[in-house]
Amino acid sequence: MIKVEEVSKKYGGEAAVEGISFSLEKGKIYGFIGPNGSGKSTTLKMIAGLVFPASGSITVNGKKVERKIAKEVAYLSELDFFYPTFTVKDMIAFSATQFPDFNMDRANELLAFMKLDPKKKLKQLSKGNRGRLKLVLTLARTAPVLLLDEPFSGLDPMVRESIVKGLLSYIDFNEQTVVIATHEIDEIEMLLDEVIAIQNGQIVAVENVEELRESKGLSVLEWMKKIFA
Amino acid sequence: MLAFKGLYLKDLKISKGNFLIGMGLLFLIVVFAYGLRGYFGEPLVPLIFFFAILVLHVLYLPVILFTSLQLEGQSQLWLHNPNGGIKLFLSKLGAALTYYSASLLATFLLLQFAISTTEISEDLYGMTEVLNNHLLLVIGGVTLTGIYISVWLLFYWTLYHSLKGIPFLSRIRWLVLLVVWIVISTVSNYLAETKVFEVIQEKGTVQLNIFSSQFVDMTGTVGQINLVSIALHVVTAIAVFLISVLLLERKVEV
Fold this sequence. Notes:
The structure holds 2 protein chains of 2 kinds. By secondary structure, chain A is of the alpha/beta class. Chain A has one domain (2-38, 58-227): 3-Layer(aba) Sandwich (Rossmann fold), CATH 3.40.50.300. Chain A is 31% helix and 27% strand. Chain A has 7 helices and 10 strands. Chain A has helices at 40-47, 88-98, 104-113, 127-139, 157-170, 209-215, 220-227; strands at 2-11, 14-24, 29-33, 55-60, 63-64, 73-76, 145-149, 177-182, 194-199, 202-208. Chain A has a 6-stranded mixed β-sheet, sandwiched between helices. In chain A, strands 2-1-4-5 form a 4-stranded antiparallel β-sheet, with helices on one face. The mean pLDDT of chain A is 93. The A-B interface holds A 10-13, 45, 48, 50-52, 66-68, 70-71, 75, 77, 79, 81, 83, 85-86, 90, 93-94, 96-100 and B 2-3, 5-7, 9-10, 13-14, 16-17, 71, 74-77, 79-85, 165, 167, 170, 249-251, 253-254. Chain B: Keywords: Membrane, Transmembrane, Transmembrane helix. Chain B: The chain crosses the membrane at residues 20-40, 46-69, 89-115, 135-160, 172-192, 225-248.
């Protein structure tokens, strides 16, 4: 379980998030939605222990978040960073040595699923294939928490589809808590249990997706348009 | 151990390109030195070049380490890792030391070859004794100094990236580093001039009889080793390394 309490974070005097509080339960898939610069990425980075809150507290499964929480949190970054001299295989091998929960069989399965050539150098991969590789590295872990920051950003529909299929096939829906930050909601709407809308560093709404559809007759996209109008 | 091995191999791969560039440069210097020797008919040229390169290796470790850190610093995503800062930094130091050792060995062998094939009749400004008998001591000094500089580099690098999180300092980070450097230098110079330090230093000095008097005259203090000074440098290096680790773990953000 993830607990975020009264968390604030500033960048250069500007508040990225301001006094946000929420809880995320085990075995659910959450969508963090909001426009660019709303505080989605900062929130995910704080849960991953990669950015430190100015105030407030964050715990993952009862443990105060610090850098080493990476043992329990798998984080997919929005950044397109890679080691230029590495091959796909090198990257997989490196991750396997760093994360005790990295499952090599699953990684190989995912590589085949995503049609990635293990011998290819990362600098030779297209942006789409690097996006696929990032997902392989994240989903090959059996960590209790998966944080995916803009997994579809700048990727074509074919890649997006393969990523969604990857999520559907490889997430452990009972054991893993998944948080997907995106402003492109179309692709993942069917996956989500709950949506959290963030704007100007504050949580403006939290909804259960099923209830949203049944009681309000709205899709997440329609709801999102209404919220951010 | 598996995690450290993985980090070490990763860091070796990251710096491989720079190592190869270094070896390429060394090769070009060999060609250049022997070219000059042939052109001017001066047999000592390769020997002087290779000795200079050997001493310049004091900067090899810091340069390799800095380029490796700069690559990580582009995103800081290397920090998404359950292993502590000690492992992250030690693997970088280890990988840099590996390439340093290979480059140093190549230079050492070149120098040995130049020494064995050159008739040294002149005194070479008091260096003859060093070249013939005490190269390993020079290598030891170069290596320890290189490690010491590298540890301080880790500190300034992490401090620079830590300051990113402080809004009013993030734009003047270089200036802050300069101020920190001046303060540290001033304090250490002040401490070095105190009477207490002088007394401790005198008591901890061990004379080395292996150097020729000329070499001692040239450098002033090379003929003696100060154990207190070495101990202080070791303690300082460990403290600076641990502070860097703390900064990396608690202040550097992605």
